[in-house]
């Protein structure tokens, strides 16, 4: 890893870029860029991003991409949150966005966002064993995290945010006492389930992160209130000022940025709802947030990421009663075959293949996760679980890749035909399918003399070769392998079995 790092946060209201250098083991910011894109307001009734919303996002990322020119892949991490979690046409946006930025943009789950937020806030606070609740109100979601010191304990994301609430309850930027009352009631209805998990008895101090809390705090400070925190009295005063102004257009308050006026009503109503619901008296303004959590992950390097992901896989396997011994067996066989396949193509030691090998082992560990629901079509159930699981350390795209491997590990290949266009995923999949077949008796298979290789320059023709006498010794396995070869003939790939 180099001496510089960068984090990109594609939020529902703003896109942010944080750049800094590592000095004496710590991150020191050298540049911070923020643009109000308000992509969260660009979702239509069908939950598709409008052309204008996508273009605004691409234009911003082009400017960020120019600034990130020359950075190495391991020095940059970019994530997107609630708006792209919701958007049905997110793939269309990301396809171009990734190319424009020059780095992959990962959509993260609500709980993964919450973990990163807490991590970012905690590393900016003095070290202590303080029990704390961290509140992050974004454009389309609110994250609540309960933790102690540097460790998050309870994490949740709720679909309530300043843009969504402003559009719904303060149309055309009109402020009335009735609209605030209705907006607060609606926010409490969404957040009501948080009362037990985040009860005041479970934390000692409350911290507010991100733009909404900062925007409110900036106005209060500029108007003479104490700095560093938001109180109930301050919220009451601010709401009265908004109602007196009657509309965002007529609002004139020191410290109120123009780009915040249109969404301040929704933000204030949500903060007031949280204060009321959780009995908060003082909300301390936190310096850290999501992008600082991303920097922490980058500073921790890949070993910590892998450890967190490995723990997530183990948690899922345990929760759904997976046969750990068999999962490890299939993973060992799949890894051996995948290594042979990549070695035959001259790409054994690439960083990508090392990563793909680890993901393949995790897919093998979880390939029977759907059996907890039903043995019939368990691969389909397993894929659904992985596509919808809250998985700390994983982006949604990483979980979808695992789900594709689980979905495709058995049965017809037509269901993953589009995914097979990606060479690396196809290689993972054939290794996994062969490993499942060879381990069908749920005991260690005899792999002596067995090799899997690519036989053409394009890498789409593969050959599995067995030693003489193997097919006679294991007739059922040999039959299943011949059926597997037939299945691949119906795709753009081919598999020949020799001596099997």
Topology, element by element:
Blueprint: E1 4-10, E2 14-23, E3 26-36, H1 51-67, E4 76-80, H2 82-86, H3 90-101, E5 105-107, H4 110-123, E6 131-137, E7 142-148, E8 151-158, H5 162-169, H6 177-191, H7 194-197, E9 205-209, H8 210-222, E10 229-231, H9 232-245, H10 258-261, H11 264-278, E11 282-285, H12 290-319, H13 324-344, H14 351-366, H15 378-388, H16 396-408, H17 423-438, E12 451-454, E13 461-465, H18 470-473, H19 475-488, E14 494-498
Parallel strand pairs: 1-4, 4-5, 6-9, 9-11, 13-14
Antiparallel strand pairs: 1-2, 2-3, 6-7, 7-8, 10-11, 12-13
Keywords:
five-stranded mixed sheet; Hypothetical protein af1432; 17% strand; Nucleotidyltransferase, domain 5; 19 helices; six-stranded mixed sheet; 3 domains
Number of domains: 3
The total strand number stands at 14
Please state the average pLDDT score. 92
What ranges have pLDDT less than 50 throughout 5 or more consecutive residues? Answer: none
Structural class, please?
A: alpha/beta
Shape: elongated
> How many strands, which pairing sense, and closed or not: the largest β-sheet?
6 strands, mixed
* CATH 2nd-level architecture of the largest domain: Orthogonal Bundle
The side-by-side strand order for the widest beta sheet comes to 8-7-6-9-11-10
How many whole angstroms does the radius of gyration measure?
26 Å
Give a short overview:
This protein has about 500 residues and is α/β, with parallel strands linked by helices. Helices cover about 50% and strands about 15% of the residues.
């Amino acid at each position: 890893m180099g001496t510089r790092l960068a984090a990109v946060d594609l939020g529902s209201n703003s896109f942010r870029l944080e750049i800094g250098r590592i000095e004496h083991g710590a991150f020191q910011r050298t540049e911070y860029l923020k643009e109000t894109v308000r992509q969260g307001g660009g979702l239509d009734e069908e939950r598709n991003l409008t052309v204008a919303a996508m273009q605004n996002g691409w234009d911003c990322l082009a400017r960020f991409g120019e600034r990130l020119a020359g950075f190495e892949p391991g020095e940059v991490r970019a994530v997107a949150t609630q708006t792209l979690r919701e958007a049905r046409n997110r793939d269309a946006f990301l396809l171009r966005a990734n190319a424009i930025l020059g780095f992959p943009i990962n959509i993260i789950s609500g709980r993964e966002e919450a973990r990163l937020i807490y991590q970012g806030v905690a590393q900016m606070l003095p070290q202590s064993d303080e029990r704390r609740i961290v509140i992050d109100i974004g454009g389309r979601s609110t994250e609540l995290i309960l933790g102690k010191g540097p460790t998050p304990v309870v994490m949740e994301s709720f679909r309530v945010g300043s843009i969504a609430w402003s559009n719904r309850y303060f149309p055309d930027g009109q402020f009335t006492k009735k609209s605030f009352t209705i907006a607060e009631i609606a926010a409490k209805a969404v957040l009501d389930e948080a009362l037990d998990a985040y009860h005041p008895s479970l934390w000692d101090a409350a911290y507010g992160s991100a733009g909404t809390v900062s925007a409110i705090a900036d106005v209060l400070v500029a108007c003479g209130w104490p700095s560093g925190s938001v109180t109930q009295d301050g919220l009451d005063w601010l709401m009265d000022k908004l109602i007196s102004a009657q509309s965002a257009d007529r609002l004139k308050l020191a410290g109120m940025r123009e780009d915040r006026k249109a969404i301040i009503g929704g933000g204030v109503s949500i903060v007031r709802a949280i204060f009321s619901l959780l009995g908060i008296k003082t909300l301390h303004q936190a310096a850290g947030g999501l992008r600082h959590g991303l920097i922490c992950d980058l500073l921790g390097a890949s070993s910590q990421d892998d450890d967190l992901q490995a723990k997530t896989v183990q948690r899922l396997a345990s929760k759904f009663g997976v046969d750990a011994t068999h999962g490890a067996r299939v993973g060992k066989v799949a890894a051996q075959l995948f290594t042979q396949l990549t070695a035959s193509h001259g790409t054994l030691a690439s960083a990508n293949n090392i990563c793909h090998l680890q993901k393949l082992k995790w897919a093998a560990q979880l390939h029977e996760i759907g059996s907890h629901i039903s043995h019939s079509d368990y691969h389909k159930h397993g894929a659904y679980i992985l596509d919808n699981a809250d998985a700390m350390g994983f982006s949604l795209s990483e979980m979808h890749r695992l789900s594709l491997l689980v979905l495709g590990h058995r049965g017809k290949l037509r269901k993953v035909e589009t995914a097979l266009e990606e060479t690396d995923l196809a290689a993972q999949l054939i290794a996994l399918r062969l490993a499942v077949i060879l381990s069908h008796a749920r005991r260690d298979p005899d792999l002596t003399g067995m090799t899997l290789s690519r036989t053409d320059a394009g890498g789409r023709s593969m050959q599995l070769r067995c030693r003489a006498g193997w097919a006679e010794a294991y007739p059922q396995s040999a039959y299943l392998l011949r059926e597997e070869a037939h299945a691949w003939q119906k795709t753009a790939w081919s598999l020949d079995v020799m001596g099997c």
